[in-house]
Amino acid sequence: LLTVTVFLSTLTPKFYFALTVTSSFISGLIFVFEWWHFRKYGTSFIEQVSVSHLRPLIGGVENSPPAPAAFSAGENETGRQNMPECKVWRNPLNLFRGAEYSRYMWVTGKEPLTYYDMNLSAQDHQNFFTCDTDALRPSDTVMQKAWRERNPQARIKAAYQALELNNDCATAYVLLAEEEATTIVDAEKYFKQALKAGEMIYRKSQNCHSQSPQHEAQLRRDTNVLVYVKRRLAMCARKLGRIREAVKMMRDLMKEFPLLSMLNIHENLLEALLELQAYADVQAVLAKYDDISLPKSATICYTAALLKARAVSERFSPETASKRGLSTAEINAVEAIHRAVEFNPHVPKYLLEMKSLVLPPEHILKRGDSEAVAYAFFHLQHWKRIEGALNLLHCTWEGTFRMIPYPLEKGHLFYPYPSCTETADRELLPTFHEVSVYPQKELPFFIHFTAGLCSFSAMLALLTHQFPELMVIFAKAVSIVS
């Protein structure tokens, strides 16, 4: 202690100043390097070195899940070309306005659909159910105006007017099934009438579709009506518990109109097959539609993850896995979960019931909160049915964000995450719902530490320069006390 005291008494204020300036400069360089490494690789260099090299030397075990393998080099590029940013899609599992959305509003007093969402549906109806030849049939002329009406009662009144002019007006029955029917049973009755009328009109259009471009347009319209009605009838059967019947109707529809894959009827089929617990059939559907040339969806990605999790989730334990490492099947399940989470990061909080659900909108934004709501609303029960699946998801999903390159625009397994999803989701989802946003990467501890060290050293250097004698006395006092 005497030697240390004599040594400190010989040091001048210039030495202390030089020491603090040097330490401030070095900690500043470390901070700049740490920040650059984090911006480029998404992780702290010091933390990475300590975890990868130092921890094993002192007997530690790394229990973080392995990084997912690249599924396809072409998937990124194909996605960039095929997926326009923030394109809104029709929800394949959208509910019935009269039998479901309206009933919710009667009970809660809250409007489940936004004006923007309903306006998109009005545009869909005009595109699907109208054509240039409507003027030739008075009932179709009335329905063309009906789809443009904003008031629901005006639309329903117009549908009855169309039926007075033509009792076989399929689109009028469609409108009544969607908006006037207050139960699924009533909606199914209207759709059965629409199917009878739609098949008759479709056969007539087939016989004369080659006569002129107008007849071709009429055939496309009548095809759209027939496909829409059959799909909604299958959904009615699913909701009424006749699941095998619904599956058959969906399969037949997909075989009859194979070119209409953009309608995503296979997503309705996947949900119905999961309800039947026909997992082999689910895998067969996924093998056909989980392809890099097709736009991905939360249903595709998370169903694939669910099937892989099903193989290992019942016996999965984080503690056991951290000691013995992950098996091949567990690695595949974790990779599938990471893939799904990167595609749509909003889904896990709904599946884990960390965030409350609302009725899904009629349109969804792929990779957005609206798609996550729509997926979880129908598929949460399927995850709950498989023992341990939600536990495996809970243990692994957050690890995805440590592996996605930073900044997030770079992407990893998929094209970059669109920056406009939050704005679009706020237009699609009701105001009483708190829109989920893409999870941001938090700064690692060592970046905060080096920033604090740099600031503290700079402050000491400034104080030493301004009050050299006082800082010398303070340094000696601290050394003696320590």
UniProtKB/TrEMBL annotation:
The chain crosses the membrane at residues 15-36, 445-464. Keywords: Membrane, Transmembrane, Transmembrane helix. It is found in: Membrane. One of its GO terms (cellular component) is membrane. The keyword Membrane applies. InterPro entries: ST7 (IPR007311), TPR-like_helical_dom_sf (IPR011990). This is Suppressor of tumorigenicity 7 protein-like. It comes from Eudyptula minor (Little blue penguin).
